[in-house]
Design goal:
The complex is a heterodimer of chains A (347) and B (359). Chain A is α/β, with parallel strands linked by helices. Chain A contains twelve helices and twelve strands. In chain A, the strands form two sheets. Chain A has an eight-stranded mixed sheet with strand order 6-7-8-3-9-10-12-11, with helices on both faces. The N terminus of chain A is likely disordered. Chain B has 359 residues and is α/β, with parallel strands linked by helices. Chain B has a single domain, classed as Rossmann fold (3-Layer(aba) Sandwich), CATH 3.40.50. Chain B contains 13 helices and twelve strands. At the A-B interface, helix 9, helix 10, helix 11 and helix 12 of A face helix 7, helix 8, helix 9 and helix 10 of B. The complex binds adenosine-5'-triphosphate, adenosine-5'-diphosphate, iron/sulfur cluster (2 copies) and magnesium ion (2 copies). Adenosine-5'-triphosphate (ATP) binds next to strand 2 and helix 2 of chain A. Chain B: Belongs to the ABC transporter superfamily. Chain B: One of its GO terms (biological process) is peptide transport. Chain B: GO terms for molecular function: ATP binding; ATP hydrolysis activity. Chain B: It comes from Roseicella aerolata. Chain B: Keywords: ATP-binding, Nucleotide-binding, Transport.
Amino acid sequence: MAAPILSTPSHSRDGGPILEVRNLRVEFPTRRGVLTALDDVSFDIAPGEVLGVVGESGAGKSMTGAAIIGLLEPPGRIAGGQILLNGRRIDNLPYEQMRRIRGKEIGAIFQDPLTTLNPLYTVGRQLTETMQTHLDISDREARQRAIGWLEMVGIPAAAQRVDSYPHEFSGGMRQRVVIALALCAEPKLIVADEPTTALDVSIQAQIIALLKRLAREKGTAMMLVTHDMGVIAETADRVAVMYAGCIAEIGPVREVVKAPKHPYSEGLMASIPPLDRKVDHLAGIEGAMPRLSAIPKGCAFNTRCPHVFDRCRHERPELLETGTTLATCWLYDPASEKQVPELLKDD
Amino acid sequence: MTDRRPHPRAAGAPMLAAEDLAKHFDVSRPLLQRVLAGEARRTLKAVDGVSFDIPKGTTLSLVGESGCGKSTVARLVVGLYRPSRGRVLFDGMDLETARSDAAQRRRMQMIFQDPYASLNPRWRVRDIIAEPVRAFGLVEGGAAQRERVAELLMQVGLSPLDGEKYPHEFSGGQRQRISIARALSSNPEFLVCDEPTSALDVSVQAQILNLMKDLQARLGLTYLFISHNLAVVRQVSDRIGVMYLGRLVELAPAETLFIAPRHPYTRALMEAIPDLEMTGRQRIPVGGEVPSPINPPSGCPFHPRCPLANARCKAEMPALLPPRGQPDTIVACHAVEEERDGVVPGTTVPPLPAAATGV
Ligand SMILES: Nc1ncnc2c1ncn2[C@@H]1O[C@H](COP(=O)(O)OP(=O)(O)OP(=O)(O)O)[C@@H](O)[C@H]1O
Ligand SMILES: Nc1ncnc2c1ncn2[C@@H]1O[C@H](COP(=O)(O)OP(=O)(O)O)[C@@H](O)[C@H]1O
Ligand code: SF4
Ligand code: SF4
Ligand SMILES: [Mg+2]
Ligand SMILES: [Mg+2]
């Protein structure tokens, strides 16, 4: 089933991956028919590993995260596939059971810290309540740990700030409190959706360093959704590139960022303005991602792909070995009539 | 406060000159509450003494952390705010005079950050684009107007048929193209672009940046460009101004700023950028929190976060001066002026020592 690059053997321990997503399919029934928002999405995340998920707006990144934490917005529903946490299926659990797993085993970090924090309670109270819901610890112990967590996320003078209300913190500090909240019940898996997009580069660097350290030290598995490729390059071990509800490419971060094999990943990386020089013209991708109701037959990228050939317009590509990554692209099927273009080959 | 000379003036008559611009907001609580609590009035100095020139056909960019006053400068420059102090000269004319004359007004336009909020959802795209054409009476007759709209749509890479549609039928990048077509419809010479690509994906951002550069080359446009993304700024700018807490702390030719940033804040911003090339360069966060513009620190406003701060920095506000050997640059920093920032002109800039304040 899982090809080697899907599961990074170097990271898996005896127990295997913490998260396994298998052929996930999410649908939205609408008046004009059923829309497929996620189609055949598969990946694993090992303990201590950070999987970056990138792609254009609307590609399905948040949807994948929402499906994993059991918070798909109705009428969206999982229509196929499985999600396993520590080998146990969680995609078909009743709401109450999933709610308990969400606090204890999966921590979620969303983009806007204000929607996650309760403005009426001190940050200390929010932390202790979360911990005591999931861990069997005394009030004293919970308060000590709350201060410890605030220190851990880099809040200065944590013992004094623990009794502050969210509005007394700056934006960057609030986002760090949200992260402490997601971590304090010591989840095995963290799903972070654009955790630093709203922050300035200076604060972003602090938060990224913290998440990375936690994954390393506590062995937490992390799914990091962002469209900031710089954040991915420094934080992720592997990257999944999504396009129109599918995984276009998945592999080790260095390979995907510096030597992408899928034509879409290649276009995405080439669009990033370089910091170290000025260029006359930024390479990019012509056109726009199709709407869910208008995804072309065959390869979803075929309307924008510079390498498109006949087969792409009829047959849907499978996830294929490229040598360094896996890509859903017919160029990598030896049976295809077209060869891999020079541009996409290893240097 | 006085305009701090010397300012290196770029060659050629400036399209726009800002002279000691300031915008102060009254953020006091209501009078009664204030009196009861015995509080004084509170003033937020969003912009406080900013001067620059933009030569015709060039791009000046402003960068800095959120809340540093970039958008406020943009609004002052197009006349959406009246300055609390200082003035703006548009092609040598006082902005207030220029704004009262339709013939001058049509020469300047603004493109906003959010391509969703800035287009009227109930109007067809052709009417959105034609509105300035009509308002300024630029083209006579329905047929000629339709032709002009078609031309503008093609100029930004859309189809004339798109004019019949409504904004919601377009993607974010296409909507930003519509905003640009609308801004271009009055044949402006000067465009203020406030974070024009921040809401867009990188692939769409590349399309819009290419379009803006192409239009500048073809139509000789002058831009004031605002962004917090330094890589984006490097692609479009001739000169770059770095803002901190309502002031310019460094203003330099674009390439000079990237090769030899001088102000400790500029250097810290550069060091905080994620390393996409994965060279293993350590990213060093700017220590400390952004201070409040209501209660700015004494002396140099960057001193609580600056690894080079000393007693003079806490007491005395540094003036914008050209460092030795860099006549095209101005920097407001005592350490640079005293040449104790460790930079020898003409050499590569060593990293800053770790910030004194830590995280
Ligand atoms: N309630 C819904 N009904 C129908 N389609 C939906 C619904 N919610 C989301 N979608 C569609 O599902 C797709 C994936 O959405 P999702 O929000 O996961 O994208 P994303 O990659 O997270 O984008 P962004 O970067 O903008 O957050 C999009 O095409 C979106 O339009
Ligand atoms: N209308 C207003 N009333 C009060 N404060 C304002 C107003 N507009 C801006 N400010 C404040 O001025 C400062 C600079 O704002 P702005 O120029 O929007 O920053 P940015 O660099 O993010 O664009 C901020 O502290 C902001 O809160
Ligand atoms: S399958 Fe064909 S259209 Fe799709 S990415 Fe590969 S070459 Fe391009
Ligand atoms: S003036 Fe002093 S505190 Fe301000 S930037 Fe220069 S060295 Fe740092
Ligand atoms: Mg999203
Ligand atoms: Mg702004």
